[in-house]
Amino acid sequence: MNGEATNAAEVPSIPHEETAEAAVAVATPEARRLRLCELALVVGVAFLTPTLSSLVHWWSGAAPTPDRGLDGLYRILRAALSISVLAYVLYRQGRSLRTIGLTAQASDVPWALAVTFCAKLVAGGLLTLFVAYQVALPKGASLAAEPTLLKWLAVLPSAAMEELIVRAYLMTEVAALSGSMALAVIVSVSFQCFYHLYQGLPAALYHAATFFAYAVFYASTRRATPVVLAHALENFLILAR
Q: Which long-range contacts (CB under 8 A, 24 or more apart) does 173-181 make?
């Protein structure tokens, strides 16, 4: 070093295999603040409006607005913008989408199927509890209504946006800044529940079971591609129904 304090761009250059505790140890207060601001920027661009809208619908009890013909196009453009902002922030920090787990490997598809199967088991267990305790079953998402070509095309970009930002990036940052991957899992799953509350609390909890399976897989492997594919497959199944 030349005597200057470590700046924010230097912090994310920590090798991917290093522990979150080590990442925190080398971060200066200024770098941590900037990293938090960039985290808020990426998450806000992608999910501020949907989260606020979801909370308003849940609090007021109003039904979600039905999908319109061009909503699929909006989802594609939103995903492209959000992932671009994420890629830029990572690039500015000396990282890339690859460093948070986006890769192309032959094992991605089998792992995606395995994650989907495990997620179905966890969600099925929660659904059994709903039935046993006479909890209102989750309502179908608006995504499932009147599928169009644009909705089909939006499935993969939307899944990629959620899993790269709320799973891979958010979990990586929370773990690095707090030193706790368990906290990262809780934050990631809880945040996803917030922007699904428009479907009702039972539905949000049902989704949380699926998201928990995704988060545990990512926490264990740091591989984002299988959870992107698993999420896309789940949404394809919803549309197909």
A: 173/35, 173/39, 175/20, 176/20, 176/23, 176/24, 176/27, 176/35, 177/23, 177/24, 177/27, 177/32, 177/35, 177/36, 178/20, 178/24, 179/20, 179/21, 179/24, 180/20, 181/20, 181/219
